[in-house]
Design the sequence.
């Protein structure tokens, strides 16, 4: 049985699939991951008892035969050795042109190589390792790159968020392990800096559904998804205060200091409820210097949007909970 043992050991580091699972079909992502692992596998070391090892290098027909055998077994649903079976019937690692993901300890670590790829590429990789994650990179200002802008998590029962009185600054946690995002090297800008990669970490035991909006570097002319962060530290209107409302003339002067182009939107109020009903684009030549600015949104690089009314309101509608979401 020595040859069977050697085959099992050679297959052990490869991607894993389980017959009967959706990704175990010959055309599935798990199957493709296995086949890619087989054809790319480097020479390995096969144990031969305690303290001894023997190196086997597969060349020519023997290596090809092993790959074909495993691929045929996969397509027909035959298990080739116990080392091919993953705990959830999925590969433990996967890579495509957009990202690669590996199981590292108690986390899956996803490294995003192409932040401008179609989001289906990311979904394909997550599904290949058994994670139902829908990752959508969206354009942001430089400070928003690598940050999670929005996340919807639906737990299906096996891994529940830890009960916490206040949100954890490191992000949501499942069984004590955070779901987090970072850039490496820290502070770099994916899409601009060479060798800058976004890294997402997901607890291995999580079995729910996750929808994530992740900030990436905006292409020239792209509008920012983090539009409402204009007055946050490091953003284009950092330090500007508008809670009490300020005249347009004052804010225009502030924008000129920062070399920003200004566009306007008119805030419309519902006469019955006293709440905001809409924001309508407004030509600059219709806005008077005494109009009141209640908020500012960053549109894209070098462009700021001022939200205004011709008269002063009793209170800032953006701070009383009546603001509707902006049009998408």
Sequence:
């Amino acid at each position: 049985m020595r040859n069977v043992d050697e085959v099992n050991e050679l297959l052990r580091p490869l991607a894993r699939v389980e017959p009967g699972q959706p990704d175990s079909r010959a055309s599935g992502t798990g199957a493709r991951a296995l086949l890619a692992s087989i054809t790319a596998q480097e020479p390995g070391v096969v144990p031969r008892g305690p303290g001894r090892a023997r190196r086997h290098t597969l060349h020519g027909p023997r290596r090809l035969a092993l790959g074909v055998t495993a691929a045929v077994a996969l397509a027909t649903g035959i298990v080739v050795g116990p080392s091919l079976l993953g705990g959830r019937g999925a590969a433990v690692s996967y890579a495509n042109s957009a990202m690669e993901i590996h199981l590292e300890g108690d986390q899956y670590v996803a490294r995003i190589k192409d932040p401008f790829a179609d989001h289906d590429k990311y979904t394909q990789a997550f599904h290949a390792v058994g994670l139902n994650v829908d990752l959508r990179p969206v354009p942001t200002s430089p400070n928003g790159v690598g940050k999670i802008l929005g996340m919807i998590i639906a737990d299906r029962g096996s891994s529940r968020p830890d009960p916490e009185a206040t949100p954890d600054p490191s992000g949501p946690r499942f069984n004590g392990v955070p779901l987090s995002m970072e850039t490496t090297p820290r502070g770099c800008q994916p899409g601009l800096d060479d060798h800058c990669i976004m890294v997402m970490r997901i607890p291995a035991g999580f079995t729910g559904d996750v929808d994530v909006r992740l900030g990436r570097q905006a292409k020239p002319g792209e509008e920012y998804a983090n539009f409402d962060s204009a007055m946050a530290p490091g953003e284009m209107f950092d330090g500007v205060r508008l809670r009490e409302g300020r005249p347009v003339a004052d804010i225009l002067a502030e924008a000129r200091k920062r070399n920003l182009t200004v566009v306007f939107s008119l805030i419309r109020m519902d006469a019955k409820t006293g709440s905001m009903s809409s924001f309508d684009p407004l030509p600059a030549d219709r806005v008077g210097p005494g109009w009141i600015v209640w908020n500012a949104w960053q549109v894209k690089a070098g462009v700021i949007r001022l939200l205004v009314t011709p008269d002063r309101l009793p209170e800032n509608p953006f701070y009383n909970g009546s603001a509707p979401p902006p049009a998408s």
Residues 60-76 form the longest helix (17 residues). The helical segments are 2-11, 29-40, 60-76, 119-128, 248-257.
